[in-house]
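Handout, section 4.2: multi-component inputs.
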Amino acid sequence: MTAYEMVVGLEVHVELATRTKLFCACSAAFGGAPNTHCCPVCSGMPGALPVLNRRVVDLAIATGLALGCRITRHTQFDRKNYFYPDLPKAYQISQLYMPICRGGSVQIDVGGARKDVRIHEIHMEEDAGKLVHDPWTDRTMADYNRCGVPLLEIVSEPDMRSPEEVVAYLEKLRATLQYLGVSDCKMQEGSLRADVNLSVRPVGSEALGTRTEMKNLNSFKAIARAVAGEFRRQVELLQDGRAVRQETRRWDDNKDTSFAMRSKEDAQDYRYFPEPDLPPLVIDEAWIERVRASLPELAEAKIARFQRDMGLSERDARALTAEKPLCDLFEQTAACCARPKDAANWVMGEVRAALKARGLAPDALTLAPEALARIVLLTAQGSLARDGAREALQAAMDASPDAPLDVDAFARAHGLLLARDDGACERAVREALQAFPAEVARCRAGEEKLVGFLVGQAMKRMPGRGDPRRVSELLREALRAPDA
Amino acid sequence: MQLTDLTALELGAAIKSRACSVEEAVRASLARIAALDGRIGAFITVCEQEALQEARRVQRGIDDGSLTHPLAGVPMALKDNLSTRGVRTTCGSRMLEGYVPTFDATVVERLRALGAVCVGKTNMDEFAMGSSTETSYFHPTRNPFDPARVPGGSSGGSAAAVAAREVPYALGSDTGGSIRQPASFCGVTGLKPTYGAVSRYGLIAYASSLDQIGPLCRDALDAAAVHAAIAGADARDATSVQAPPLPPLGAPDLAGLCVGIPEEYLGEGLDPQVRARVLDCAQTLRELGAQVERCSMPALRAAIPAYYVLASAEASSNLSRYDGIKYGYRAAPRPDGEEDLTGLYARTRSEGFGREVKRRVLLGTFALCSGYYDAYYAKAQRARALIRASFDEALARFDALLGPTAPTTAFPLGERLDDPLQMYLGDIYTVSVNLAGLPGLSIPCGADAQGLPVGAQLIAAPFGEGTLLRIAAAYQAATGHHRRAPKEVG
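Output:
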């Protein structure tokens, strides 16, 4: 039987983190009561005209530079015409003929294999509004708050061959956009959306098969499942001797399957033409250089620096930079406690595990780096045991960001600080030895496994505060002593 | 003498000198509208209460010295595609019959700020698509020189209102001749400014890359004053630019000026009487010291088809927002309760738009369809570039170009309504100026045998409004054509 491979390209929409909209001064903030972030321009009133928010162009250029794209020097906006109630002008201002960026790539790493996924183009466009159906009154209401919010559409070449590559591409792209400060990339708020273009072909073939476009993908996991599911569906069709139809499909993650939305024959003719209300946009060298000078440190540079200056392994450095919120936490924690390796282990280990246990995404993290730094330091000094440190971490994650946890006070109050006071330990050891003379004798006779029992007894006599290493040391010393 | 016989600047001076009050000026205008407009039909909406209230505010400003502009207190009218806060703005369409804007167009804001008083909104071809004002949903407007004839269009209401002395000046908009051609038909002075000279913010778009707002006045001096008041860059219109200020109109002679007459403007289809009056005008300019020569601009032949493709393409997109969802006309629900979105759109737009608008929306939609885009839209853009280059070349040689504004004088109502091609061909001398983004001015230069006004068109390089107005002012100082008032309504 023929073996097939998948050929996947992505269209990723990101909402840009600008204060105002693409063509008016309305707030671009997420949420707000319906139709409160609107004006005559973004709600498409007759006679209103768009004026370009140049900050959007800055962010588009920054993205292009970070992904190694060519920046189009003479660009323009185009109108994409279609009727829908969430689009009050009945056209979307977008870019078709001269997108602001072309070329470039995203480097991904799957199972140790590096690969460049090429970028076809990046263009600027405005978002549409939202329709809300009220089942109670059976009416549909329009909310234009999102109308005119700036978007970048990042279109890849069909270079991905597995769900893992797709997810790696998305993770790398998201991290880059987050490092740039271009977007917060919150899928749950729709600030990052991805459509999947997928076709299949016999392994070894160079020709592209008929592709489908998959929409309604709400998480990276859903995307991975949708990619795998669509691959299976297309392969089964071909194996049954049927053809894949060029169509747009909608993924239903609950049912783990997709449904055809519209076929190529029903595809709309968007009648694109250059937007006459906006003059052509000329981007000169000075503009590009100004953006280049303002670019923050990106993941690859961080990975190199973490290895060079902080002594991390490449693997740890890559893992840390994959998600910006965790990377930020790591850098700030390391700066506070001056123990980068310990800080890295804590972030990648305990912090990540705690997030997972709470079912939180990294961008929902509110842990204060000062608190984590104190936990790292006390643990490294031996003042906190692993269990106590975990307890402190949970409390630090529960604390509100405005009032971070005082780790020392918390540890004292909950008796988590280990007794480093030899007097208390010696007293406990002495009491344990006196309470179990027979066991002491057997121990001295060489019954090594009873040492643990005696340590336990000593620990019991100083509950919660004993440093087991120190107790064990003192106990062994006492056993070695000629007369206890 | 009546207040309504004064030009805008004369009336402004009378108000300033306390010879009359703002309220008297506004009441005189309102009274003339009340007396005449039943026969002319220049207005869609008369804002009597608002105007009288505004008159009192402006009078206080004049009295306390905060309003000193020469046009302060002078009544005026606005074409009904200029957004006026709180006053319905219909665009001459059923689609916007009850639409009340929440904001003023920039030009309205600027005129209000200097103390102009709007007395009403003038009739127009629906969405500015037409050359006769007959496509208005509301009623036709009649030419004050002959009520059986059209006033031209699409700013026919503004031109008729000025010609009938209902207002001393009015604003119109010009996409393919919509200020100049009605100015020509109604014997008034109409200026279509350079593209970008006047902000389009608040002008309900017909074709964005061609639309410009401009004044229709009794003479060139008024046109200069109104143009200066409304021009200038606007942060709300990205296509607007700051032009240098108009030079003083000064010199009564035209010595040193070079004027070209393109052969293409005197060719087939031109009424011989119009031709004769325009050549008379050329002779007067010569007598005033200008050098007048013939020239040739063959690229202009492509102007009509290029214009109707590009303007219709942009219109098809600009008018898509009238879908019955947010504001404006919405078709009644289907009696069977089976409502689907496409059906609602289709019925709303079929019922809300008139025939000419639907014709151009269909034409424009077709021109932008994939598969036809290159053959129509892209080709028309190339023709536009050629026309622009041709004007650049001619205007490097001449300070201004002269020709007729329209091939004929005002035609009878109904004559061309069912013959769109003939109607479109009437725009032959005006559309190329919009395609090239140039300033154009129409001035009265006499009458035909029936006493109907003939207009001469002057065209200059970008931001050459000063040159056009200087020529017009010198011509009007030397002749009296612009002072001839229509008798029929007098």
